[in-house]
Amino acid sequence: MIPDDSYKSISAISKGSYKEKGSKFFSFAFPVISEEEVKEKLAMLRKEYHDARHHCYAYRIGYDKQVFRINDDGEPSGTAGRPIYGQILSNDLTQILIVVIRYFGGIKLGVPGLINAYRTAAKDALDHTAIVTKPIKEEYQVLFEYTVMNNVMKILKEEGMGADAS
Fold first, then answer.
1. By Cβ atoms counted within 10 A, which residue in 12, 109, 150, 166 is the most buried?
2. Mean pLDDT value across residues 53-79
3. What b/e string do you get for 63-93 counting C-beta neighbours within 10 Å, with b at 16 or more?
4. Contacts of 144-152 spanning 24+ positions with Cβ under 8 A
5. Picking from 2-6, 22-26, 86-90, which range would have the lowest pLDDT averaged per residue?
6. In what order do the strands lie in the sheet with 67-71?
7. Where in the chain are the domains?
8. How confident is the model at residue 166 (pLDDT cuts 50, 70, 90)?
9. For 72-103, how does the pLDDT look when each residue is reduced to its tens digit (9 = 90+)?
10. Cα separation of 88 and 126, whole Å?
11. Pairing of strands 6-10, 131-135
């Protein structure tokens, strides 16, 4: 496969955790394909973990890796969503959502402590699933005049592409 016809994602939902100075961080990694699916997963986790202080997350969607979002959910700017997103970037993943839920333990961790905690929790979720390379599967419809059919079919055959003559 040429590099442009595949992408890396995770094979299944996974969980991870991290503890620091009484605070507990629970992490979840989900394979997702749309922003609507991201919203559903976030709503599910907010309902299940309604008593948690923070639900921080990052996601990246699309084969071109252009759709992404980072959310600190009340933590100091750049201390939660960015370290989570960093794990997505360092593994070159897409079609993924990582959520880290924090239960505050009463002791402030400071900016470096928060960055480390969110990064480590996100990494732990990724460590509990397989990272897989998947082929990009897209369908295209090519319209052309009947008089050029032989030329089109020849090009498709040379490029090793299947042609559906429907």
1. 109
2. 94
3. eeeeeeebbbbebeeebbbbbbbbbbeeeeb
4. none
5. 2-6
6. 14-20, 23-31, 96-103, 54-61, 67-71
7. 3-135
8. very low
9. 999 999 999 999 999 999 999 999 999 999 99
10. 9
11. antiparallel
Which 3 state secondary structure label does DSSP give 47? Answer: helix
Say how far apart CA 158 and CA 25 lie, in whole Å.
53
pLDDT value, residue 161: 73
* Tokens coding 35: 């922003």
- Quick check: 4 pLDDT over 70? no
> Is pLDDT larger for residue 159 or for residue 68?
68
Query: What is the spatial distance between Cα 86 and Cα 157, in angstroms, rounded to a whole number?
Result: 41
The CATH architecture that domain 3-135 belongs to is 2-Layer Sandwich (3.30)
**Contacts made by residues 154-161, CB under 8 angstroms, sequence distance 24+:** none
Residue 130 exposed, middle or buried by CB count within 10 Å (0-12, 13-18, 19+): exposed
The DSSP secondary structure of 82-101, one letter per residue, reads HHHHHHHHHTTB-SEEEEEE
Report DSSP state, residue 147: G
